[in-house]
Amino acid sequence: MFLIHLTCTSCGLHHDWKHLQNLCTACQRPLAATYDLEKIRRALTPEHLTSRREKSLWRFREVLPLPPSTEPVSLGEGGTPLLRAGRFGNKRGIENLWIKDESQNPTQTFKARGMSVAVSMAKYLGATKLAVPSAGNAGGALAAYAARAGLEAHIFMPRDTPRANIIECRELGAHVTLIDGLITDCGAEIARRKQAESWFEMSTLKEPYRLEGKKTLGYELAEQLDWQLPDAILYPTGGGTGLIGMWKAFDEMETLGWIGPKRPRMFSVQASGCAPIVHAFENGETFASEFPKAQTVASGLRVPKAIGDFLMLKILRESHGGAVTVDDEQMIRMARELGSTEGLFVSPEGGACFAALTSLIQAKQIASHELVVIFNTGSGVKYLDCYDEATS
Fold first, then answer.
1. What is the distance between the alpha carbons of residues 54 and 60, in angstroms, rounded to a whole number?
2. For the whole model, what pTM was predicted?
3. What CATH architecture is 82-106+210-391?
4. Domain range summary for the chain, segments of one domain joined by +
5. What Rg do the C-alpha atoms of the chain give, in angstroms?
6. Quick one: pLDDT at residue 386?
7. Mean pLDDT of the region 117-123
8. Which of 177, 254, 377, 385 has the largest count of CB atoms under 10 Å?
9. What are the angstrom distances between the C-alpha of 201 and each of 23, 36, 93, 253?
10. What pLDDT, on a 0 to 100 scale, did the predictor assign at position 100?
């Protein structure tokens, strides 16, 4: 095992990874896993990965935190396809457009990646009861992986969460509590009760290992592109773990000698009804203010305040990328067009990225010859009410 310690992403304080951890004890900012990358470089090469039969994210075991003698809590997550979107791209003059389709994960969303690693580590470190606030998909993933691990799952969701997500969590054996409010209100309720209830909190970036699962998006993408990175990545952003995780993966891979210093321009895509990162980016701010009266049909984007806001904003600026808003009508319309041209029934969050692509092309922030990757983070099947309402 190559994990050394946990490092605060803000003040740099080191923490012992052998204990259950949430935020930095000094500044209450997110923690990230730090590895001995020089030892990993000697132990693992891209050629080793090619020979491995395992196609899940656990094929990158050396850059993940779980001790090698411990069986991961897995449902076969990761290993999702990178699909060419030629017909959709050609209509917009983009020659090299690709979709990383995360809907093919267990529980049909990218949340499976983070929860597999986080639940594996929580169980290894002695947690027995796990709690998460969720707009839907993180709750479904926690319910599935907690059940797989034999642990209790306590999920707090806004009352207007898509019905499919609520049913999924309950049928997977989780204790589901519906809250009148937003995901931030759900998080506040967990914070109020977790000590008395002996829950370990699994909120986005409030424990360090969901980030490690999400960073495998970056490792897979580089491998699928023969260890070259795209010119631009469009990513739907709520809590932002995937965006932050990929950037961490790129830095690790450069140290490992697998890629060079080139980085993609990273674009955060948010709903116009909940766009704290876009507003902070446009205003040159380091942190994002809480977005008032957040509302969008893309429940994964309805995060009015993200604890990792400062990390996302730093990445967008370092990469010379940007932040784009899309309204609900645009994201549904683009999702439908993608379905009819490419055969993929994507989530509204995925549809938002395809709508944002059109805006970025028109603004000349993406050129026709560039290699562009869009992340579809989940299946449209989990949003049937939203698509049905748009039809009527």
1. 9
2. 0.95
3. 3-Layer(aba) Sandwich (3.40)
4. 82-106+210-391
5. 19
6. 82
7. 98
8. 377
9. 10, 27, 45, 30
10. 98
